[in-house]
């Protein structure tokens, strides 16, 4: 009854029929909405398209690298070649000319081949790794000496490339890495079932090599592992401590403001600058060895710290103030409040942030170039001070090499790198889902 | 009923050296004169647990509480009422120094718990908050088990030595909070799995587990339904026998139901204080009258 | 604390309170009219008018029921506090007093009928002479108390409570006189008893008016002055007014 019913005082517009007014503009509104939806769809599908293109390209290129061509040869472990004295002395066994056994096997397969050049071409079908393979077999089992066995031996990279169909046979002989006669022998071996593609264990078990068929990513993987270990052990505790101090204990004044701004700035600094800093401070000033995972980890820690601090502070602020009040109201000291209640609640968020920061560090290459982790290193690193390289740098190194077989290995390394990235991000999501509390 | 004689008041005031509590020009009305503003009604009680005098609170440059003087008697429930932003919660938070956590908050004046000035440097805030428990507006159990929630206080204060003692204390506290029957078989479930009213009673159990002398409640029922509210109110009435309770509430009916004395705050001033029945049937100050009758602008 | 004249935030609250008060005032007006009519009927020896008064009593009763309902509704729906609560409770009490005053009017009307309907001779004017001044005083008290209610005027209400003493004295005097008449001439006993009922009713009306006045003081000032010495009443009532 006290409703303002005086229509006279209301603006004239209110007397018009609201239904017709709204209806008039309705079509336009709906059209705008549909249009907007389409924009979104187009943007999303464009993004997806590029992702699919990238993955398709990498996988199609890198997939063959997981398979390697092997040639089956009849090998006679001739005691006269391996151990003429019959002493079975490991030293003798180690230094024996196993390549001769391989060559003998080749000659046995193709008895008609003659002439030095022809024979060299024939021997070239098998990788130099074949001799090492025989050596390790004999060292493991000296009883083999004197026996005769059909053994799968690693084919050379050129044969591998040919078998995978990556060499155009119609090209002129001089423009191919593999000659006509070699092609003929390969075809013959194939026809006899003596050529086969097997899973490429070398890729995961050995370090870098100049020979593509013998090059693996184990060295880079271990390098990445040690580097990230250092990064995590340094940046996580320091980052969490910094975040907790800034968020819970530090007075809010000009100084903390300056620190906050600088942390945010640090997160935006190009990573190569951190590399230069690492070079100047850790290597030139502190005299740490070049190419060492320790230095790489230090540099990446600098880069990851701001990310962890920012993520940590966000996780801390998302803990509801009511929990803090409850703890303080119970008479908990500030440290008890943080330690017992706030930190456990913020931990999943902090871990998520850290893992994402670590994933970023895993993919980083530029700062590591500056501290010499870009060297050609054959040995798998065994510690923090051994020279090492990391996965992304390995990718960068291989992508520079001319051999066709390195192209697929580059892509394979990228695939491994991506797999780790996805794994780490997946872990981050899992942690968040698992420990996320609704209060 | 507090029937302080004028002599004791004068003696108290003299001891605390505050603005004189006088009778106004009309006989029978007690008015405490603080500079430019008067608090209507008797601010003193016979057996005070807490004595607050000339309390001022500033948030930065803004004054949130002006010259508030009030006694809180032993084993009585005092209700603070008033419109939003009137300073009642601010005053409540002064009583256990929860305002310390707010940057830019400054408290002047004197607040005594028994004979200790709680803002004195010698008083540790941790010890103070163990003596003055608090229950908040939103039920805020820790995201831990029911047992852990109640055990937390005794644990951090080192009140118990053995697990059996702690068990007893937890059960006794839950019992006193009227919650034991409902949670006896689910002590290990998270406190957040309880209903809103149960959560709030859990918070009360948590507060009384450290056996405080005073319990502060900041709108403890504002998030609860009427039945849960009734249970809490009944609980407050029972707890009054052992504790001194100060409650801030937006519900005048609630203040009327649970409290013995009521204080009305308005824009940082303590306008009127008195026996609850008097304040709600016959308030002396026009602002109080306007607020409780629903005439507040 | 005097009654606040500011409007409530909830307008409907104001409307309901105002309705209740005007209902009580309407009832008061009706009761006043009933007494006047009853006295008039006695004076005029008008039996029809007296019967009308009796017949109209149920209207007053109906108004009391209505105002009780309204009070209960107000308490249940608005939960009045402070002066609002005092007003609702006082109005509710005032309606009870008004209803009793209405009953008093009915008693006088019934007495009129008994005196003049019977076959015996009508009473002498001597017997009836106390009724007029007492009724005048009672009606004045009722009128003033209703006036005080309409204006929320405590001063006027306090005056009413003082007049009750006058009425009591009149009643005592009337009783003594009637007793003398009865002793002088036992034939007058029948009429005299009826007259005693009438003056007693008037005396009761005065008591109820005093009650109404006291309720008004409580409603406005929040001070209970009932059952107190007349001389202290003003003090008690005045104590509570503070500069607003």
TrEMBL record, chain A:
A Gene Ontology biological process term: phosphate ion transmembrane transport
Major location category of this protein: membrane
Cell location: Cell inner membrane; Cell membrane
Name of the protein: Phosphate transport system permease protein PstA
Gene3D superfamilies associated with the record: MetI-like (1.10.3720.10)
Family assignment from sequence similarity: Belongs to the binding-protein-dependent transport system permease family. CysTW subfamily.
Transmembrane segments: 38-59, 225-246, 266-287, 294-315, 335-356, 411-431
Keywords tagged on the record: Cell membrane, Membrane, Transmembrane, Transmembrane helix, Transport
Range of residues in the leader sequence: none
Domain ABC transmembrane type-1: 221-428
One Pfam family it belongs to: DUF3333
PANTHER family with a match to the protein in the record: PHOSPHATE TRANSPORT SYSTEM PERMEASE PROTEIN PSTA, PHOSPHATE TRANSPORT SYSTEM PERMEASE PROTEIN PSTA-RELATED
One GO cellular component term noted in the UniProt record for this chain: plasma membrane
GO molecular function ontology, one term from the record: phosphate transmembrane transporter activity
CDD domains, sorted: TM_PBP2
Encoding gene, per UniProt annotation: pstA
Membrane topology term: Multi-pass membrane protein
NCBIfam families: 3a0107s02c
TrEMBL record, chain B:
GO molecular function annotation: ATP binding; ATP hydrolysis activity; phosphate transmembrane transporter activity
GO biological process: phosphate ion transmembrane transport
Keyword Kinase: no
Cellular-component GO terms for this entry: membrane
Name by which UniProt lists this protein: High-affinity phosphate transport protein (ABC superfamily, atp_bind)
Sequence ranges assigned to domain ABC transporter in this UniProt record: 50-292
Biological source species: Candidatus Contendobacter odensis Run_B_J11
Domain of life: Bacteria
From TrEMBL, chain C:
Pfam families tied to this protein: PhoU (PF01895)
Keyword Transport: yes
Compartments where located: Cytoplasm
InterPro entries on file: PhoU, PhoU-like_sf, PhoU_dom
GO CC annotations on file: cytoplasm
A Gene Ontology BP annotation from the UniProt entry: intracellular phosphate ion homeostasis
Protein origin, superkingdom: Bacteria
Presence of keyword Cytoplasm: yes
Limits of the PhoU domain: 24-111, 133-215
Quaternary context: Homodimer.
NCBIfam families referenced in this protein's UniProt entry, alphabetically: phoU_full
Similarity comment text for this entry: Belongs to the PhoU family.
Protein name as annotated: Phosphate-specific transport system accessory protein PhoU
Organism: Candidatus Contendobacter odensis Run_B_J11
Gene that this sequence comes from: phoU
């Amino acid at each position: 009854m006290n409703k303002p019913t005086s229509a006279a005082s209301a603006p004239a517009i209110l007397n018009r029929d609201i239904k017709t007014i709204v209806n008039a503009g309705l079509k336009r509104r709906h059209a705008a909405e549909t249009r907007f939806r389409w924009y979104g769809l187009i943007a999303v599908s464009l993004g997806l398209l590029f992702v699919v293109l990238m993955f398709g390209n990498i996988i199609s290129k890198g997939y063959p690298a997981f398979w390697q061509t092997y040639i089956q040869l009849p090998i006679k472990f001739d005691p006269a070649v391996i151990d003429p004295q019959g002493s079975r002395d490991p030293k003798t066994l180690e230094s024996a000319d196993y390549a001769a056994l391989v060559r003998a096997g080749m000659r046995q397969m193709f008895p008609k081949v003659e002439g030095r050049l022809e024979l060299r071409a024939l021997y070239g079908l098998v990788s130099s790794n074949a001799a090492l393979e025989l050596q390790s077999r004999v060292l493991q089992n000296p009883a083999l000496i004197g026996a005769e066995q059909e053994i799968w031996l690693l084919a050379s990279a050129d044969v591998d490339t040919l078998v995978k169909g990556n060499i155009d046979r119609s090209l002129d002989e001089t423009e191919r890495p593999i000659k006509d006669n070699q092609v003929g022998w390969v075809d013959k071996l194939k026809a006899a079932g003596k050529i086969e593609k097997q899973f490429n264990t070398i890729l995961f078990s050995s370090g870098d090599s100049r020979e593509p068929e013998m090059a693996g990513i184990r060295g880079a993987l271990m390098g990445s592992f040690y580097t990230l270990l250092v990064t995590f052990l340094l940046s996580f505790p320091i980052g969490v401590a910094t975040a907790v101090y800034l968020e819970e204990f530090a007075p809010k004044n000009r100084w903390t403001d300056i620190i906050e701004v600088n942390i945010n700035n640090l997160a935006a600094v190009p990573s190569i600058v951190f590399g230069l800093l690492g070079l100047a401070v850790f290597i030139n000033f502190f005299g740490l060895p070049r190419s060492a995972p320790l230095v790489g980890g230090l540099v990446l820690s600098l880069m990851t710290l701001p990310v962890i601090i920012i993520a940590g502070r966000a996780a801390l602020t998302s803990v509801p103030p009511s929990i803090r009040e409850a703890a303080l109201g119970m008479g908990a000291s500030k440290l008890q409040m943080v330690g017992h209640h706030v930190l456990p609640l913020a931990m999943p968020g902090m871990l998520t942030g850290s893992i994402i920061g670590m994933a970023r560090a895993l993919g980083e290459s530029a700062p590591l170039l500056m501290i010499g982790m870009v060297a050609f290193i054959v040995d798998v690193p065994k510690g923090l001070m051994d020279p090492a390289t990391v996965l992304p740098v390995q990718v960068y190194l291989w992508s520079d090499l001319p051999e066709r077989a390195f192209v697929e290995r580059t892509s394979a390394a990228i695939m491994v790198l991506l797999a780790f990235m996805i794994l780490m991000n997946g872990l981050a999501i899992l942690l968040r889902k698992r420990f996320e509390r609704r209060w | 009923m507090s029937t302080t004689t004028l002599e004791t008041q004068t003696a108290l005031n003299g001891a605390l050296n505050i603005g004189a509590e006088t009778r106004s020009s009309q006989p029978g009305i007690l008015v405490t004169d603080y500079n430019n503003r008067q608090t209507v009604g008797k601010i003193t009680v016979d057996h005070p647990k807490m004595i607050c005098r000339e309390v001022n609170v500033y948030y930065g440059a803004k004054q949130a509480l002006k010259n508030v003087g009030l006694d809180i008697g032993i084993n009585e429930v005092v209700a603070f009422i008033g419109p939003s932003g009137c300073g009642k919660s601010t005053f409540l938070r002064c009583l256990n120094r929860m305002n310390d956590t707010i940057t830019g908050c400054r408290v002047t004046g004197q607040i005594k718990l028994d004979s200790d000035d709680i803002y004195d440097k010698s008083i540790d805030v941790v010890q103070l908050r163990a003596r003055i428990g608090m229950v908040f507006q939103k039920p805020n159990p820790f995201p831990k088990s029911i047992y852990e929630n109640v055990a937390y206080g005794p644990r951090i204060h080192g009140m118990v030595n053995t697990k059996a003692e702690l068990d007893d204390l937890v059960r006794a506290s839950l019992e006193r909070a009227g919650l034991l029957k409902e949670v006896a078989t689910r002590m290990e479930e998270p406190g957040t799995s309880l209903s809103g009213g149960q959560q709030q009673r859990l918070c009360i159990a948590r507060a009384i587990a450290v056996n405080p002398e005073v319990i502060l409640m900041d709108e403890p029922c504002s998030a609860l339904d009427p039945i849960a509210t009734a249970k809490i109110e009944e609980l407050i009435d029972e707890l009054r026998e052992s504790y001194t309770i100060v409650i801030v509430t937006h519900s005048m009916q609630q203040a009327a139901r649970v409290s013995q004395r009521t204080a009305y705050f308005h824009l940082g001033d303590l306008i009127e204080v008195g026996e609850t029945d008097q304040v709600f049937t016959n308030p002396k100050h026009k602002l109080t009258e306007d607020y409780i009758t629903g005439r507040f602008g | 604390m005097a009654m606040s004249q500011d409007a409530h935030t909830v307008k409907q609250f104001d409307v309901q309170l105002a309705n209740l008060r005007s209902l009580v005032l309407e009832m008061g007006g009706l009761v006043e009219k009933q007494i006047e009519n009853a006295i008039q009927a006695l004076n005029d020896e008008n039996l029809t008018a007296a019967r009308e008064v009796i017949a109209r009593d149920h209207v007053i009763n109906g108004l009391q029921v209505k105002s009780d309902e309204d009070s209960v509704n107000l308490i249940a729906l608005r939960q009045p506090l402070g002066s609002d609560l005092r007003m609702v409770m006082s109005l509710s009490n005032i309606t009870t007093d008004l209803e009793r005053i209405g009953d008093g009017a009915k008693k006088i009307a019934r007495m009129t009928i008994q005196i003049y309907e019977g076959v015996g001779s009508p009473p002498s004017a001597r017997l009836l002479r106390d009724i007029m001044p007492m009724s005048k005083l009672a009606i004045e008290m009722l009128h003033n108390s209703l006036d005080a209610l309409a204006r929320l005027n405590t001063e006027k209400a306090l005056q009413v409570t003082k007049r009750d003493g006058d009425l009591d004295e009149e009643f005592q005097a009337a009783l003594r006189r009637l007793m003398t008449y009865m002793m002088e001439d036992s034939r007058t006993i029948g009429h005299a008893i009826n007259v005693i009922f009438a003056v007693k009713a008037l005396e009761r009306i005065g008591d109820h008016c005093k009650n109404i006045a006291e309720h008004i003081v409580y409603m406005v000032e929040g001070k209970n002055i009932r059952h107190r010495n007349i001389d202290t009443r003003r003090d008690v009532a005045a104590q509570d007014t503070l500069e607003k």
